[in-house]
Amino acid sequence: MSNCRQSSVGPRLGPAATLTALLLALVLVALGCGSNEQGGPDTTVLPPITTAQGGTGTAEVTMTGFAYEPATLTISVGETVTWVNEDTARHDVIADNGEFASDLFGQGESFSFTFQAAGTYPYHCGVHPGMTGTVIVQ
Ligand SMILES: [Cu+2]
C-alpha cells in the first residue's frame, strides 16, 4: 500500500502548527490589551442596584413605594436598564418622548430597554402621574 508514504505529511504540519499557535497568542494578547483599557475587571456578579459606573452593561431601577429608585440614573451609551417592580401595584415605564414604553407589569416582573444614543430621557408611570424618573445616557 502506498498509503504508508503519507505518513511523511505529518512532519510538514509542524511549522504550520507553530505559526497557528503564534497567531493565536498574538490574538489573545491583543484581546487582553483591549479589555485592560476599561480598567474594570469583568468579575461583576452582583447586579448594580444604584448607578452604573459604565461598561457594566446593565443597570437596575426598582419600582417601590410608588417611586422609581433611583429616580435619576446615569449610564453609558449602549447600556441596558431594567426596571423591576417590587410594589404590589402594577406600574409601567413610559418615556416622555415616546422612545420606549412598557406594558403594565406586576410585582416581581421587569422591563428592560437598551439606550443606544446619548441624551436625557425623562419617563413616568402611565397610571401614577407623580411617579417619574430620568435616565441620563452619557
Ligand atoms: Cu405606577
Query: What is the residue-averaged pLDDT?
Result: 78
Order of helices and strands: HEEEEEEEE
Q: What is the domain total for the residues?
A: 2
Shape: globular
Radius of gyration: 25 Å
Number of helical elements: 1
Ligands bound to this protein structure: copper (II) ion
The helix-and-strand class reads: alpha/beta
* Helix content class: 10-25%
**How far apart lie the N and C ends?**
70 Å
What's the total number of strands? 8
Query: What's the CATH class label of the largest domain?
Result: Mainly Beta
* Biggest β-sheet: strands ordered side by side in the sheet: 2-1-4-6
Q: Unreliable segments (pLDDT under 50, ≥5 consecutive)?
A: 1-11, 33-40, 48-54
Overview in brief:
This protein is about 20% helix and about 30% strand. With about 140 residues, it is α/β, with parallel strands linked by helices. It starts with 8 loop residues before the first helix and ends with a strand.
